[in-house]
Amino acid sequence: MDFLSEKARRLTPYVAGLQPQEAGWIKLNTNENPYPPSPQVTEALNAVDIAKLRLYPDGESEVLKSAIAESVDLKPENIFCANSSDEVLALAFQAFFSGKKRIISPDISYGFYPVWAEMYDAEMIFAPVCRDFLINPSDYKNANGVVIANPNAPTSLAMGLCEIEEILCANANSVVIIDEAYIDFADTDSFKSAVSLVNSYENLLVVRTFSKSHSMAGMRVGYALGRASLIDGLRRVRDAFNSYPLDMLAQTAATAAIKDTEYLGQTIRRIVKTRDKTIFALREMGFNVLQSQANFIFFESEKAAEIYEFLLKNKILVRYWKKPRICNLLRVSIGTESDMEVFTECVNQFLREGEC
To answer: Does residue 1 form part of some domain?
Structure first.
């Protein structure tokens, strides 16, 4: 007997990257950080009074909110914490987009956006990215909501603050969500965080995560930054079903991570250096590689599917989508320098064997 609701039957769930459990794989398919979290995270978790696990955690994550607020020069009332940026985004769809039409997002972007739209009865319009995969701000006008990943995934490209402000001004009566999962890896001279605009635009909600630059994907901590009215909206939806979302260990670990800015900077610089070296190597082989502002790259080949299979046979996981416009591209997360050397050598081997 089928007990599913009609809505559940209609859903097309998001498909995450493969997560092999056996050893020996080079895993470059889920944009995880190849380096461990800050040593201060280890120290903080070792100091936890385990007996306190019998108690519910702080439902508002006050200590963590204060640490985040201090790091971005905002107030705790401007911060909302939850189990991953995915949960923050799902709550935002419910709070601001549910039941509305004309929610605009890029046609090539994070695959979870259309899933949430279907789940929460929001009608989305997918604005085509340009031929060079850049986002055209003029395509995002008169919406009842906007959601954009910046830098975008899987393209790795980013918008500047002027372009974001253009979208904010064109949608003054609607919430604009800027999903900044990868912003820490962007060139700070050209692509700054939209957090600096929070005090200027009441319709801006910035969503961030500890999964990428802070190396805490396994802990699942995300947060939003915005005007107090937007934060209250998120809180209202959250408290309708789970008023204690972020556990004590996660709050403790994330607080330690956000405070260790020196380690964060070191890790980001290592990844960016390896990313740029990998881009150079692939371009030397003749591939078109987009100028990444993230911890992954997107490169083009007419034999993308064959390269994917060749890498898979050699126990190297990357991401491939058999979809229009991107079926000739591969997304590759940046691993350690040795991981990327193995990856580039394997691609080179594919070329030498005449597979292209």
So the answer is: no
Q: Which alpha helices (H) appear in 285-336, and where do they start and end?
A: 304-313
What is the distance between the alpha carbons of residues 167 and 172, in angstroms, rounded to a whole number?
9
How many separate domains does the chain show?
A: 2
Residue 57: pLDDT over 60: yes
**289 close to 283: Cβ distance less than 8 angstroms:** yes
- Is this prediction's pTM over 0.85? yes
Bridge pairing between strands 204-209 and 176-179: parallel
Provide the pLDDT confidence category of residue 356 given band limits of 50, 70 and 90. Answer: very low
pLDDT reported for residue 118: 93
Residues 228, 116, single domain; the answer is yes
Give the tens place of pLDDT for each residue, 94-135.
999 999 999 999 999 999 999 999 999 999 999 999 999 999
Q: How far is it, in rounded angstroms, from Cα 280 to Cα 189?
A: 21
For 118, phi and psi rounded to 5 degrees?
A: -70, -40
DSSP label of 183: G
Cβ–Cβ < 8 Å for 197, 165: yes
Helix (H) or strand (E) holding 231: helix 228-238
Domain that holds residue 20: 6-36+262-352
Same domain, 162 and 232: yes
Where residue 28 sits, what CATH number does that domain have? 3.90.1150.10
- CA distance linking residue 15 with residue 326, whole number of Å: 16
Whether 330 is in a domain gets the answer yes
